[in-house]
């Protein structure tokens, strides 16, 4: 059977998009990536999927939106190496933990991080536009101040209380990971699953990683250094780093066209 044509419609760096990139690379599935700029992505993603959030995966004619559905679709398409245990109870536990990270942790980590990045607008733009030609980067940066209120609201940075709650939720998520991984090094059972992938990808913004899909633009502004220093000594940071080292493959080959 012919290999399916797979295209990931994504934002660079973004932690939810990292879940999809990681799953594609874990399965060794050749694919292409279309990186959109946050903001201008809206009409493109809406036309493809009827909603605006990335990641969106195109598998031949099929459109899969949302990182959890993407992981499930990839597991079906290429069962090995697995991301979900075959035992139904263990699978349900992995799915519940992934849902917790997707629904609670991912958005809160983003709010906490954006509360810092919004004070560094040039750096924030660089995270997403670094592969673009100079004229597009200049335009994106020129428009940014006009839309920064929307970016603030869209990422939950609505006031000091929301930001404080987001920092507390990030800390709780790191505590949960440290607690659950203490026995085997994994969150469920004794092997790598979608629960580990979701937790490591969605907590990746709390540390500096050298995987090219998550490496930060340099130089780091002082505020970003302080953000990283805040989490550096947490035991779960070492777990995220180790999970990347052991289980995050390099990028799968680009699909032949
Ligand atoms: N639950 C979704 C969340 C995806 C999400 O929040 N994506 C963000 C980037 S991190 C996005 O594309 N936001 C822009 C928008 O919603 O228009 C998933 O797991 O994929």
Summarize the structure in short.
With 257 residues, the protein is an alpha+beta fold.
Structural commentary:
Helix 1 links the parallel strand 1 (6-10) and strand 2 (32-35). The chain has 257 residues and is α+β, with helices and mostly antiparallel strands. The longest helix has 30 residues, at 88-117. The protein has helices at 15-26, 41-49, 67-77, 88-117, 121-129, 134-154, 160-181, 194-203, 222-232, 235-247; strands at 6-10, 32-35, 56-59, 62-65. It is globular and about 50 Å long. It has a four-stranded mixed sheet, sandwiched between helices. The protein has two domains: 6-77, 3-Layer(aba) Sandwich (Glutaredoxin); 88-247, Glutathione S-transferase Yfyf (Class Pi), Chain A, domain 2 (Up-down Bundle). The protein is built from ten helices and four strands, in the order βαβαββαααααααα. The mean pLDDT is 97. The structure holds glutathione. Glutathione (GSH) binds at residues 11, 14, 16, 42, 52-55, 66-68, 102.
């Amino acid at each position: 059977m012919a290999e399916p044509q797979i295209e990931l419609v994504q934002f660079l760096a973004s932690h939810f998009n990292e879940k999809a990139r990681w799953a594609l690379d874990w399965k060794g599935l050749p694919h292409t990536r279309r990186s959109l700029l946050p903001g201008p992505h809206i009409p493109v993603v809406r036309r493809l999927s009827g909603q605006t959030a990335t990641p969106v995966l195109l598998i031949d004619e099929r459109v899969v939106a949302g990182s959890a559905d993407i992981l499930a679709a990839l597991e079906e398409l290429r069962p090995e190496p697995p991301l979900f245990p075959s035992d139904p109870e263990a699978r349900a536990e992995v799915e519940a933990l992934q849902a917790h990270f997707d629904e609670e942790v991912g958005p809160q980590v983003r709010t906490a991080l954006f509360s810092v990045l919004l004070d560094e607008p040039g750096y924030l733009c660089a995270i997403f536009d670094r592969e673009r030609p100079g004229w597009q980067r200049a335009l994106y940066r020129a428009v940014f101040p006009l839309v920064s209120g929307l970016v603030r609201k869209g990422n939950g940075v609505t006031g000091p209380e929301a930001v404080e709650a987001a920092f507390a939720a990030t800390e709780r998520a790191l505590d949960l990971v440290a607690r659950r991984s203490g026995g085997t090094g994994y969150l469920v059972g004794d092997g790598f699953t979608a629960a580990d992938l979701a937790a490591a990808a969605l907590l990746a913004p709390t540390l500096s990683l050298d995987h090219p899909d998550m490496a930060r633009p340099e130089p780091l502004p002082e505020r970003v250094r302080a953000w990283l220093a805040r989490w550096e000594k947490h035991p779960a940071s070492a777990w995220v780093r180790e999970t990347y080292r052991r289980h995050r493959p390099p990028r799968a080959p680009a699909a032949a066209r």
